[in-house]
Amino acid sequence: xxxEPTSEAPDLITLGRRIRHARTSRGLTLEALGRQVESAPSxxxxxxxxxxxxxxxxxxxxxxxxxxxxTDLLADEPPSRRAALEIALERAQRGPLFGALGLPVVKPSxxxxxxxLEHLVGLHDELARREEEAIATPEEAxxxxxxxxxxxxxxxxxxxxxxxxxxxxxxxxxxxxxxxTHRTVAQMAGELGLTILHVDDLPRSARSVTDWKNGRVYLxxxxxxxxxxxxxxxxxxxAHRVLGHxxxxxxxDFLRQRVEITYFAAACLMPQSTAVSFLEQHKRAKDLAVExxxxxxGVTHEAAAMRLTNLATVHLGIPLHFLRVxxxxxxxxxxxxxxxxxxxxxxxAIEGQLVCRRWPAREAFTRRDRATESYQYTDTPAGTFWxxxxxxxAADGSQFSITVGVPYAHAKWFRGRxxxxxxxxxCPDPACCRRPPEDLAQRWERASWPSARMHQQVLAxxxxxxxxxxxxxDVYRFLExxxxxxxxxxxxxx
Length: 494
Hints:
It is built from 20 helices and 9 strands. The chain has a 6-stranded mixed β-sheet. A 3-stranded mixed β-sheet has the order 1-3-2, with helices on one face.
């Protein structure tokens, strides 16, 4: 029997428990096993407790003596439910969180009942969850968001598993093309045993509330009949069940789930097969435009632009970037797999960073006509990029711009490639746009003192709760108000 050594070290705790499980199943003591493999019982005890990595020769001897394949001993999964609990307890008690408590270690011996093990592991899990929640500051959220953005970039922002689920569900609900209707969304929810209801008293901290017990999805009333927003919210709500999500244990979990449900909603509103067919047709005609893609599927400009990032690289072979920038120049959301150097801080986070004044995302605010897309070429240290920009107004009245752009070589596929507007950016060189003109600096540097507007959230930790940012008490009281009376026939209609 030969096994090639792997490049990764085995999980010693799991390995030890698998050896112990195989030994006790054959009724062998440590002393008896030690005699047969010519090793001291004390060494074997360290191995079984995950505190010593055995030599490969010893592992082979143990496997032959216990008559189990060596690959079984090296498997990743615990050999039993009890072993899994013992491993979880061992790991928890070896961590820094437990060490800081100054409590005695509980040895997970065979005499410890399984319910007690479950109780201890559950307490450690809750302790870890609360610790993670306590450190979920804006800084922690930015770091988690940076990890997610880089993962998406590595995958060209394409998640085929979610694409397949969305395609299947929309087709089964009767979708054939064009904009996904509210009725189709309601049918998709119905297949999952859910009814969509619109109420005017949703908790202020929640975008939607799902009552799994009574099969209801509560959404706000429609402010714009037929609008894209409520379809997207409903799809995001049912996505948690479709994707098998569990309650997030950290802010990183919460953000990952948010990315996945947003992706699912977009993949339903603009199903892959139909969307790709539309884009391929317009690419052949060298007439790709975000505004046409948007109008064809009845979604917002931002949703259409983001959906392009899911499909353009994988299906059209076009690398691209996406930006949402406020009228103050701050980057709210961004994605790039085409080499555009997004501004970032020392942690790699891009949110809140100022983009170059020469970039079209900011130049667009200086233009008088903002009703349609505007186009621009920008020469940068990383190359020349072509961009299409559309401005809009947020609910709070602030302005923002949505940018989709590509490297110069791929501009040939897009409408607006013939624009004569061209700018040069040398950012991050401060002389490009961050350093004021010398005459202005000399005139005002010592003669002015602006008072900066400070956003309170930059210092605040994220609100505690089962779901980050959501007031649990408000949500639970809301559900109590709207739960159907079990003594009455209740037939809510969407």
